[in-house]
Design a protein that fits this description.
Aspartate Aminotransferase, domain 1, Aspartate Aminotransferase, domain 2, 2 domains, binds pyridoxal-5'-phosphate, Aspartate aminotransferase family protein, transferase
C-alpha cells in the first residue's frame, strides 16, 4: 500500500509583499451575527431593493434563520417554522440531513480535489453512473452542472444537435418555466421574465396538454426538431397532462424524428411518487434534466441525462466532444459527493414511496378543507408532494362593502387571496408556503420528502383554522399586518 503524502495546510501568516490594502470586509463570524435589520439594509443596498418589497408584504423580512433541521426552520426567537415551501422542491431531504452532512464533512477532511476538468474525478464518474442507474430506458449519458437552468440549456443544445436539422425550431408550452438564462428564457412563457431581452426566435408555443395542437404544429412545420415540456408544470400552478397526452407526445416525436426533452427540474427526483414524473405514464423522453434536490439541499447541482444515441449524435466524436463539455464547476467534488449520498438516502429511506403515501394523505386532508370552505378554495391538485392549492378569486367571495379596500391592495398582491393566506400562515401559525409565478391564486406545497403525517396534520390544522376565521377577518388581519 502506498503511503499517503501529508498535505500541508496553507500558511495563515500575513503576506509579506505589499499588495493592495484589504478592503473593509465582513468575516464569517460577523456575517453570522448580523441582526435582521442590518440584513435587510444590506439586501436593499446590495442585492435587490424591489424584491424586498415583496418579502415585506409576506412578512419574510422579519425572520432571521438561526438553524434549520429536518422539516423546520428555527428563527432568532427560537420559533420553529414548518417548511411546506421546500425551496421550490430543493429540499427533498429536509434541512441538514445527517448522512449528507457527514458525507460532506468526510470529503473535506480527506483533502480531496474539487475541479473535475483536468484529471478524471471518481466522484463525477460515480454520480453519472448512479444517475444512469436511476433513469429508465437508454437515458444514460450525463452532463453535470450547477443549476436547473444550466441543465436545461444542456438539454436543449444536445437535442438541437441530435435532431439533425440545422437551426431547427423548438416547441414549448404555454405557461412553461425552464429557467432564466438567455437560451431557456426563450422557452419560458413569461412576458415579465422575458422582459425586453433579445431572445432566440426559433421557438413555437403550443397549449400544454393539447395533443392536437402539438400534432398540428409538428406536422405543419418540418423545421421543428425539438419539443420541450415540463412533465408537471410548476410555475404554471401545478398543472398535469393525462397519460394519453404523454403517450401521444412519444409517438408523435418518434414518427417525425423529433427529440423530446422532459424538464424534471422541479417535478423529478422522487417528488411525484416516482423518480421521474414521466414514469407515471409509461414513457421515456429522449433527454431529461434534474436539479434542485439532486444537490441534497446542500449543494448546487444540475444534471442533463440523454439517451446514448442522442448524445453521441450531438457530441460523440473528438471533434464535437468539447462543444458542450462540463463548465468549470461541472462535476465539482463536494457537490458530486453530496449528490451521490443524496441518491443513496433517497432509496435507503424510501422517500419516493413516502412522497406518494404522504402526498395522498395531504391531498385527502386538503380536499376535506376545500369541501368545508368552498367559497375560498377553488381546487386542490397535484401528485405526491407537489400540490397546488388554488383559491377563489376573492373579489367575489368578499362582502360588497369591503371591495374598495381590497381593490386598493390588489395592486400589491395582484388580486391574490393566496398572498393573504400565505402571510398569515407564517405570522400566526408558523407555516411557510410557496407562491406561484404565473397564477397568483395558487399556493404551491412542496414540502421535503421526509414529511410525515404529523407534519401534514400540523399544516392542515393551521390552514383550516385560518380559513375558519373567514374572508373578512383574513383581509382585515392582513391589512393590519402591513400597517404594524
Ligand atoms: C421546471 C424548471 N426548470 C428549470 C428551472 C431552473 O432552475 P434553476 O433555478 O436551478 O436555474 C426551474 C426552477 O424553478 C424549474 O422549476
Amino acid at each position: 500500500m502506498l503511503d499517503r503524502p501529508t498535505l500541508t495546510a496553507p500558511s495563515l501568516a500575513a503576506p509579506v509583499r505589499s499588495g493592495p490594502e484589504k478592503p473593509k470586509l465582513l468575516s464569517v463570524e460577523e456575517a453570522k451575527a448580523l441582526d435582521v435589520g442590518t440584513m435587510a439594509d444590506l439586501f436593499k443596498e446590495h442585492i435587490n431593493p424591489g424584491q424586498f418589497h415583496f418579502m415585506k408584504l409576506l412578512g419574510f423580512h422579519k425572520i432571521k434563520v438561526e438553524r434549520a433541521e429536518g422539516m423546520y426552520y428555527v428563527d432568532q426567537n427560537g420559533r420553529k417554522i414548518l417548511d411546506f415551501f421546500g425551496g421550490f422542491g430543493s429540499l427533498a431531504f429536509g434541512h441538514n440531513h445527517p448522512r449528507i452532512i457527514e458525507a460532506r464533512r468526510k470529503f473535506g477532511e480527506e483533502g480531496r480535489h474539487e475541479i473535475a476538468i483536468a484529471f478524471l474525478s471518481q466522484y463525477a464518474s460515480a454520480l453519472a453512473k448512479n444517475l444512469a442507474a436511476c433513469s429508465p430506458g437508454e437515458l444514460d449519458m450525463v452532463f453535470l452542472g450547477s443549476s436547473g437552468s444550466e441543465a436545461m440549456e444542456a438539454a436543449v443544445k444536445v437535442a438541437e444537435r441530435a435532431s439533425g436539422r440545422r437551426n431547427c425550431k423548438i416547441v414549448h408550452a404555454e405557461n412553461s418555466f425552464h429557467g432564466k438564462t438567455k437560451g431557456v428564457l426563450s422557452l419560458t412563457d413569461s412576458p415579465l421574465y422575458q422582459g425586453e431581452f433579445r431572445l432566440v426566435n426559433n421557438t413555437v408555443k403550443v397549449p400544454f396538454g393539447d395533443l392536437k395542437a402539438l400534432t398540428r404544429a409538428v406536422e405543419s412545420d418540418p423545421e421543428i426538431g425539438v419539443v420541450v415540456l415540463e412533465t408537471i408544470q410548476g410555475g404554471g400552478g401545478i398543472i398535469e397532462a393525462p397519460t394519453e397526452y404523454w403517450q401521444g407526445v412519444r409517438a408523435l416525436c418518434d414518427k417525425h424524428k423529433v427529440i423530446w426533452v422532459a424538464d424534471e427540474v422541479q417535478c423529478g427526483f422522487g417528488r411525484s411518487g416516482r423518480f421521474y414524473a414521466f414514469e407515471h405514464h409509461g414513457v421515456v423522453p429522449d433527454v431529461t434534466a434534474l436539479a434542485k434536490s439532486l444537490g441534497g439541499g446542500k449543494a448546487a447541482v444540475g444534471a442533463m441525462i440523454a439517451k446514448r444515441d442522442v448524445y453521441m449524435k450531438a457530441y460523440g466524436t473528438p471533434k464535437t466532444a468539447m462543444i458542450h463539455a462540463h463548465a468549470t464547476f461541472g462535476g465539482i467534488g463536494e457537490a458530486c459527493v453530496t449528490s451521490i449520498e443524496a441518491l443513496n438516502v433517497l432509496y435507503d429511506e424510501d422517500l419516493i414511496g413516502n412522497a406518494e403515501d404522504t402526498g395522498n394523505y395531504l391531498l385527502e386532508r386538503l380536499n376535506a378543507i376545500k369541501d368545508k370552505h368552498p367559497s375560498l378554495i377553488k381546487e386542490v391538485r397535484g401528485r405526491g408532494l407537489m400540490i397546488g392549492l388554488e383559491f377563489q378569486d376573492f373579489s367575489r367571495a368578499l362582502p360588497f362593502a369591503l371591495r374598495p379596500m381590497v381593490a386598493m391592495l390588489d395592486d400589491k398582491l395582484k388580486g391574490s387571496l393566496s398572498g393573504f393566506v400565505g402571510a398569515l400562515l407564517l405570522r400566526d401559525y408558523d407555516c411557510l408556503v410557496a407562491f406561484t409565478e404565473y397564477n397568483r391564486n395558487v399556493i404551491r406545497l412542496e414540502p421535503p420528502l421526509i414529511c410525515g403525517d404529523e407534519h401534514v396534520d400540523q399544516f392542515c390544522d393551521a390552514l383550516d383554522a385560518l380559513l375558519s376565521r373567514g374572508i373578512v377577518s383574513i383581509v382585515k388581519d392582513f391589512v393590519k399586518s402591513q400597517l404594524g
